[in-house]
């Protein structure tokens, strides 16, 4: 399989250091997309098994103000790489006053991060009943778990059609997703599973809300107005055929969840698979 990572710009120039901290992994590449978004890849713990779509806790060491001792500062991060990848990829926000990302945004190849190897999450194939079409609905960094699932062959083996919608405020915020789709379409093995032209299984629907682009509007409004179905030339969502995964900001998650429920889809879980699943892209 060819390299699927969009993270190629600052490939490791320094040789990766051997991890020394507990649960430490070494950064192998970093790519900045905008002043608020970047992606990075790290070494993968030999023992780490995960299901595409799951998240882990990762972070950096920090000094405890009271005790003066070093301790880890960890946050939840969706694994953006697929389960077969030999490295792990993450797609991150940069919050300028954020305790973690104000520092994490400065990592470079050769640096170490802390990664707790205990993957969990609901955006997994196991939480959905079999269906014909699979929708991935994302806003902002909520695309990260889908970057994993979209590079997993099981996604194309289990479904006849896969639709990724990604809504961001600005055009530059769509770049990671656009690159991801280009890389998937040009990957030999995945391209064969996806097919070409009219028969292509993968449909990509990027939209912006605050900067002019080819398609503007919130995905919720575009679904209600019927634009999504018309633009893609597909039938409306039905509980008999459609399965969905949602990952974005809280208001988006709640609005879309209510819309899907109204269409007759029910929320599933690992222990009780149904028609759709949802996870927050961050805590508001
Ligand atoms: C299940 C889960 C999975 C997550 N996966 C990712 C991921 O793959 N990539 C990622 O960048 N973040 C992800 N997050 C958010 C992440 O855990 C941190 O909040 C983020 O890294 C910022 O950390 P911080 O310490 O700098 O700021 P925090 O104190 O954690 O956050 C400060 C504020 O920044 C905003 N914010 C935080 N994260 C985001 C975001 N991703 N997009 C937009 N605004 C945000 C919120 O308003 C938040 O209140 C996830 C969160 C959850 C709950
Ligand atoms: N993106 C930026 O340029 C920027 C800059 C500085 C600070 N921030 C702050 O960072 C935080 C996260 O910003 P973000 O842009 O990454 O993510 P966000 O605010 O979660 O927005 C991402 C996308 O989701 C859309 N959206 C919001 N609510 C929705 C709903 N109910 N239904 C459907 N779509 C919905 C937004 O559309 P709308 O545009 O219509 O809301 C936007 O296109 C926010 O607190 C923000 O104030 C963002």
From TrEMBL:
Family annotation (Gene3D superfamilies): Nucleotide-binding domain of ferredoxin-NADP reductase (FNR) module, Translation factors
Record keyword Transferase present: no
UniProt similarity note: Belongs to the ferredoxin--NADP reductase type 1 family.
Keywords for the protein's UniProt record, in alphabetical order: FAD, Flavoprotein, NADP, Oxidoreductase
InterPro entries for this protein: FAD-bd_FR_type, FNR_bac, FNR_nucleotide-bd, FNR_type-1, Riboflavin_synthase-like_b-brl
Protein name: ferredoxin--NADP(+) reductase
Domain FAD-binding FR-type: 20-126
Entries under PROSITE patterns matching the protein: FAD_FR
Region (Disordered), start-end ranges: 1-22
PANTHER family per the UniProt record, alphabetical: FLAVODOXIN_FERREDOXIN--NADP REDUCTASE (PTHR47878:SF1), OXIDOREDUCTASE FAD/NAD(P)-BINDING DOMAIN PROTEIN (PTHR47878)
Signal sequence annotation: none
Domain of life the protein comes from: Bacteria
Coiled coil: none
Cofactor(s) this protein requires: FAD
EC number: 1.18.1.2
GO biological process, one term: heme catabolic process
Species annotation: Aquicoccus porphyridii
Reaction catalysis annotation: 2 reduced [2Fe-2S]-[ferredoxin] + NADP(+) + H(+) = 2 oxidized [2Fe-2S]-[ferredoxin] + NADPH
Keyword Oxidoreductase: yes
């Amino acid at each position: 399989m060819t390299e699927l990572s969009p993270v190629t710009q600052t490939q490791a120039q320094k040789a990766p250091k051997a991890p020394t901290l507990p649960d430490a992994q070494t950064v192998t590449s970093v790519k900045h997309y905008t002043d608020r978004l970047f992606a990075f890849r790290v070494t993968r713990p030999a023992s780490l098994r995960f299901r595409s779509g799951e998240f882990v806790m990762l972070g950096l060491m920090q000094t405890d103000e009271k005790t003066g001792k070093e301790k880890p500062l960890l946050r939840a991060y969706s694994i953006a790489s697929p389960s077969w990848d030999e490295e792990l990829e993450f797609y991150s926000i940069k919050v300028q006053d954020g305790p973690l990302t104000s520092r994490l945004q400065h990592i470079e190849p050769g640096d170490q991060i802390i990664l707790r190897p205990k993957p969990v999450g609901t955006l997994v194939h196991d939480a959905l009943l079999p269906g014909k079409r699979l929708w991935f609905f994302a806003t902002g960094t909520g695309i990260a778990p889908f970057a994993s699932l979209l590079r997993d062959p099981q996604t194309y083996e289990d479904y006849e059609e896969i639709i990724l919608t990604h809504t961001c405020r600005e055009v530059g915020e769509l770049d990671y997703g656009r690159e991801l789709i280009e890389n998937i379409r040009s990957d030999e093995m995945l391209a064969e599973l996806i097919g070409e032209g009219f028969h292509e299984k993968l449909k990509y629907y990027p939209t912006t809300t605050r900067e002019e682009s080819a398609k503007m509007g919130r995905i919720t409004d575009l679904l209600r107005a019927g634009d999504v179905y018309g633009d893609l030339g597909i039938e409306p969502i039905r509980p008999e055929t459609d399965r969905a995964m949602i990952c974005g900001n809280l208001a988006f998650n709640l609005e879309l969840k209510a819309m899907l429920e109204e269409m007759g889809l029910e929320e599933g879980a690992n222990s009780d698979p149904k028609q759709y699943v949802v996870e927050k892209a961050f805590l508001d």
